[in-house]
Amino acid sequence: VSENSRLFEKLVSVECPDSTYHPASNPLVFKSARGSVICDADGQSYIDLCAGFGVMALGHPTEDQLAELIEGTSIIHGMGDVYASVDKIEFIHELAALYPHGPARVALALTGAQAVEIALKTAMLATKGSGFICFEGSYHGVELGVLPVTHRQDFRAPFKSWLRDESVEFVPFGCTTATLERAQRALQMRGFKLAGLIVEPIQGRAGIIVPPRDWLIDVAAWSKTAGCVSILDDIFAGLGRTGVMTNAQNANFDLVCLGKALGGGFPISACLGRSSVMEAWPVCNSEALHTGTFFGHPLSCRSGLKALKAIRFSNLPQRALELGQKIKEFINVQLAGSSRFVEIRGEGLMIGIAYSEVGFGAKLMDQLRSHGVLALASGPRGDSLSITPALNIPENLLFDALQKIVDLSK
Ligand SMILES: Cc1ncc(COP(=O)(O)O)c(C=O)c1O
What we know:
- The protein is 35% helix and 17% strand.
- The two termini are 32 Å apart.
- It binds pyridoxal-5'-phosphate.
- Pyridoxal-5'-phosphate binds next to helix 5.
């Protein structure tokens, strides 16, 4: 029996059944990684087209790079909302500078869902409302505080009786401003003043769905006229993946949520945005209204600072855009005429390949694993395959992996 199988059985014998994917065959256990190559417990290597759900934007580090990260520091944990660390202060300034529309303030958390939760609370404090407009197909995390704004029914259904659905209005991704107005009125009629609108620049987990051109600009502008706080969930798409450090660059959103790649592999997330909106929070004179034991974790801040600088100053966003274009051209040519292939979509290195068969993305994900490639199925029907590699993935590795996708997709 393989070491992968032995370890996997050991895991699932005690782990909560829902925590780790149970593949039909060939379980995989990570043992080591470097750049865009991962090795499993049996010594088999894989080209990594997932980069840890987009987290490892700079690829997996070497042991030397990891050692360099902790060199010269002994502050691993700070005291979140009580005392700050030097690393946190440096990091937070770098983050504030990312906001493209004037003076900004930043709140740190650990996970994407927590950053979204801060954004929702900020909108409530700033408007004294509690209604939200969200989009069909959205994914903003699954914690109970953010589950109401995540649309995917499979995540919501078992907990439906707990969710306060009447304060949320879902509208189609890409809808007109007339639809947004109708949603605002519907909330008002149910007694909920509109607090905010939350949107992904590209819907990631829905299967990499791209909205119409300039639509985000209109959505942000509409929010301003509607008097609500506009929130861009840039957790998956931000930090260079789609060619820009933040997708709020053109669209004037009040708040931007960042996560995933933000910590260079370490857990950290942020809600940042317009100072005038963030200042709806009171000054913390005793205990913070919103906090967590690990918020502003110094080591994550240190790693995040390095990652931000590396992404920003190395032209990786531009590379992502150019490589994304090449991927689209390659797949469109190679899969033209394949009856299963529907389309390839996305921006930069956030790419989805859609198939006509329900579950084909999931089937392909398993087959690719046996051929030494890691990519993730996406979309509620498992009919897409998403490709979100490191922004610095070597081109030869990327195209070797794409060739395998082509061969298995026909
Ligand atoms: C757009 C978006 N928002 C929020 C989240 C939630 O992030 P986390 O899983 O870190 O809570 C995700 C995770 O995939 C995401 O893609």
